[in-house]
């Protein structure tokens, strides 16, 4: 079958030139987006997702308030141009609603919602480009956006997907691989190594599950390093400019005080 | 055949300045969680992020931005570690406004309810302004009548901006405001700018008057009101509390130079905010002088290079 792309060739390389356990490059942008309280743009290879977080703020609908904790509202929008075949999905699409519910249930136990009674936290996920690992990019992006918004969380949530090609496990699948290979997505909290999400839409042999589960958990820790570096880097640059501004002020006010005496 | 090389980084500024290691090699930032170090290190500007354990919960008490798990105090937000004696807390760099009693805030009415207004003040919930905590026409001290309740929209309507002080908190953490001072009340003759609350520091006075004929109200919630200067003797005195003027919805006549000055000040605030520089009266004044010196029009400030030059001139080492 010459026309078919090999998932894993004899040399141990995948269709995009990666090895079995190699992850795609991750790019993280945490800069301010519009008037969102926190935002993040994350790319896993060619998968490209933008997440904005608003809140905690007053709920738009009074019926949505919960008296002892914050309500989390996740909305996912998939851009029509994000896939190969241009297709417009409506907001009421069942698949997208389920997807949003998955993200919500992943973050509900991690966000310290009890600190914000009667408030609402809005998470808006915008999928800009898809190339496999959609859920993983959305979850990682949401983690970063929530942290950027200063919302208290127990830990990072780092998601990664994996699959098994005949007997060899693969990590961080592209769309091509995702279509061909039984795969699952795992979200792990690195501190406790608790897993807050495991989903699988395909069928995987039970004997293979443990191996890929273990590998994906480890890959989650590697992604955690990247995300932590980005968050700390962002914090550092912001603190740097705050300090510079404050230094300037303290110097000036001293001069001002002397002027006042005259 | 077509071949791909690795893709270049899309975000130049997000490239990490640290050296990259294999995951098995520990970066030096991982050493943050040693208890011995914690006692020795100053509380100054140590950065942390969620899930990072800070210290033992037996030796220290947990403050805001932390939680206790497994006898460890663990950070729950990304920000700076602060320590006061045995209390450890983490202050998030960007977050919503955390109100404290006595803070001056600028807010916008979102809803009129029986005997109260709901006010959006950039906090986690809408603030409450009770009818009993505003000044009513005909004397500062008098009982609220039913007729006052019926004409609440005459005082504040949905969408009105006001300056107020945080009076108290409700049991669920929502704040209650009051405008029982002649300094407080409805805002007009100006423009609102929104900045992250951390960039507004506590000052001796949050009512600033710049010499260019512009009044500034720096709300601690990050809402800043920039308006035409009102002379103090024209402001309503204690005796002649003029309800019509205080609750008026009509702007005064604002001449072109004042309009120009107002928009220039708002642009300066936006530029400083985009560079995350904390706002002070001195800084704003300096920036204003700089823009006038460079003979720029107010709209020039919106250009990236011009804004960068401005920030570079007032915070030199940036």
UniProtKB/TrEMBL annotation, chain A:
Q: Name one Pfam family in it.
A: RNase_PH
Q: Name one GO cellular component term.
A: nucleolus
Please list the GO biological process terms of this entry.
Answer: nuclear mRNA surveillance; poly(A)-dependent snoRNA 3'-end processing; rRNA catabolic process; U4 snRNA 3'-end processing
Q: Which residues form a coiled coil?
A: none
Record-linked InterPro entries:
ExoRNase_PH_dom1, ExoRNase_PH_dom2, ExoRNase_PH_dom2_sf, PNPase/RNase_PH_dom_sf, Ribosomal_Su5_D2-typ_SF, RNase_PH
Q: Return the Polar residues bias intervals.
A: 244-253
Q: Does the keyword ATP-binding apply?
A: no
**Compartments it resides in:** Cytoplasm; Nucleus, Nucleolus
Instruction: Kindly list the GO molecular function terms attached to this UniProt entry.
Output: RNA binding
Q: Provide the assembly information.
A: Component of the RNA exosome complex. Specifically part of the catalytically inactive RNA exosome core complex (Exo-9) which may associate with the catalytic subunits RRP6 and DIS3 in cytoplasmic- and nuclear-specific RNA exosome complex forms. Exo-9 is formed by a hexameric base ring of RNase PH domain-containing subunits and a cap ring consisting of CSL4, RRP4 and RRP40.
**Protein name, UniProt field:** Ribosomal RNA-processing protein 41
Name the species this protein comes from: Pholiota conissans
Automatic annotation (TrEMBL), chain B:
Looking up CDD domains in the UniProt record yields: KH-I_Rrp4_eukar, S1_Rrp4
- Location within or outside the cell: Nucleus
Molecular function in Gene Ontology:
exonuclease activity; RNA binding
Q: Where is the Exosome complex component N-terminal domain?
A: 47-84
Q: Return the Gene3D superfamilies for the record.
A: 2.40.50.100, Nucleic acid-binding proteins
| Domain RRP4 S1 positions | 96-167
Enumerate the SUPFAM superfamilies for this protein. Answer: Eukaryotic type KH-domain (KH-domain type I), Nucleic acid-binding proteins, Ribosomal L27 protein-like
**GO annotation (BP), single:** U4 snRNA 3'-end processing
Instruction: Write the record's keywords in alphabetical order, separated by commas.
Output: Exonuclease, Exosome, Hydrolase, Nuclease, Nucleus, RNA-binding, rRNA processing
What family classification does the UniProt entry report for this protein?
Answer: Belongs to the RRP4 family.
Protein name, UniProt field: Exosome complex exonuclease rrp4
**Which organism was this protein described from?**
Pholiota conissans
